[in-house]
Amino acid sequence: MQIRKKLFLMFGLCALALTASAQQDPVLLTIDDNPVTLSEFLYSYRKNNAEGVVDKKNLEEYIDLFVNYKLKVQAALDARLDTLSSFREEYASYRDPQILPSIVTDADVETEAQRIYAEAKERAVAGGGLVKPAHIVLALPQQAKPEQGVVAKARIDSIYRELQAGKDFAELANLHSDDRGSAAKGGELPWLESTQVFSEFSSVVWKLQKDEVSEPFQTPAGWHIAKVLDRCDYVPYDSVKTNIVQFIDRVGIKQQLFDKKLQAVAEQQGSDKETVLRQQIDELTSTDADLKNLLREYHDGLLLFEISNRTVWENTASDEPALQKYFKAHKKQYTWDQPRFKGIAYHVKDAADVKAVKKAVKGSPFGEWNEKLRTTFNNDSILRIRVEKGYFKKGDSPLVDREVFGLNTTVKTNPDYPIDAVFGKLLKAPVALEDVRQQVVSDLQEEREKEWVKQLRQQHRVVVNQEVLSSIKE
């Protein structure tokens, strides 16, 4: 469904900039006296006939599609779908990122980055500054047995004696540390604040001077020996600025700045944020046709999706009687290029379960087989069967190929489920709705959509300015 929504949002998207004066942007058509300009139509037409588009349409074909599109949008407006809070919120999520750069400047971002940096620096300094440590750790599980702790303590003491004898810290970390990520770098860890590590770690390491090595100590992770490679109050701003700006983008701080600035202007004007935003949009789109068309496409595309979903897609997909009726009436048009095995390929531990599986699903609707098998065989912590369910053609499953289609295929046996079996029936063509449900749903949706468009054309007066249309052809 999300893919379908994206397609609707892309309807008519292109990079065409036209000024909208009365002379340069004439009215191409009207729907109940609501004008649609030439630039809006061309914006859509050129996108949907651009290089790389497979299903290109000529002008006559496309004008009909475009009218249908506008009629559906009008139906959504008539149904007041644009007033729903869900629509407004989703539209804002597309609209606001386009408007945000005109409200939140680079200077605003820089000020916020400086503020975040200052707070982080103050916090780090209060905690003893930054430390760049290296460590050797012998990991212990949280529920380690006493004897495991004794062994780990003996090993860490042995490593510490080697350090006291002059052995290189990095070399010993590489050899012995269970933190293999840092071990490969001689035990080196990144710059850290005291709040980023276990308190048992920071209480030891933050007391060490540069190049000083600790005695063995224990944290919830295990036994450690640590060395301070360097320490400072905090890193320079320029070294972390890029990361802070990325953080501002990632966690939505820009949106917060956007809302605050709109609110500040609204308070100055004695209005509200939406009014201020509307004013900004009007100002931007008065000189930027691309933005105007883009925002309209987002707005209309979301409405188009919602009205289509309510009127055709969702209703049709859940209308079981209508789907059954449609399938029976058009059954002959649904065929397969080769037979299908409708059933399951399954694997069990116990030979007795081969018949038990068949008994469990026999007589039940095909769509309920998975649940039947789950509750019958895998309803506790012990999994008794493995099942693949579906419509298998030759080549889909080695087991079905061998057992159903009689092919000489090699089936790789799972040692945990060594007994293989199949159950179901071989179909030359679909015999029930469930065999081709997706295609039937799609076909009935298409039929209903055509009927809907027919009704819309009867309900609304559409007038195309043939003179303007002819100018495009010329």
Percentage beta strand? 5-15%
Strand order, largest beta sheet: 2-1-9
Sheet with most strands: 3 strands, antiparallel
- Mean of pLDDT: 91
* First-residue to last-residue Cα separation: 39 Å
Rg (C-alpha, Å): 34 Å
Strand element count:
9
Distinct helical segment count: 19
Please write the string of helix (H) and strand (E) elements: HEEHHHHEHHHHEEHHHHHEHHEHEHEH
> Roughly what percent helix?
40-55%
* Uncertain residue segments: 6-22
Basic shape = flat
Helix vs. strand class: alpha+beta
Provide an overview of this structure.
With 474 residues, this protein is α+β, with helices and mostly antiparallel strands. Helices cover 54% and strands 13% of the residues. It contains 19 helices and 9 strands. The strands form 3 sheets. A 3-stranded antiparallel sheet has the order 2-1-9. The protein has a 3-stranded antiparallel sheet with strand order 3-5-4, with helices on both faces. The protein is flat and about 95 Å long. The model is unreliable at 6-22 (pLDDT under 50).
Outline the secondary-structure elements.
Layout: H1 2-9, E1 27-31, E2 34-37, H2 38-48, H3 59-78, H4 85-103, H5 106-126, E3 130-139, H6 146-164, H7 169-176, H8 180-183, H9 199-205, E4 217-219, E5 222-232, H10 237-250, H11 253-269, H12 273-285, H13 289-317, H14 320-329, E6 340-348, H15 352-361, H16 369-377, E7 385-392, H17 398-403, E8 419-427, H18 437-459, E9 462-464, H19 466-473
Antiparallel strand pairs: 1-2, 1-9, 3-5, 4-5, 6-7, 6-8
Helix pairs in contact: 1-13, 3-13, 4-11, 4-13, 5-10, 11-12, 13-18
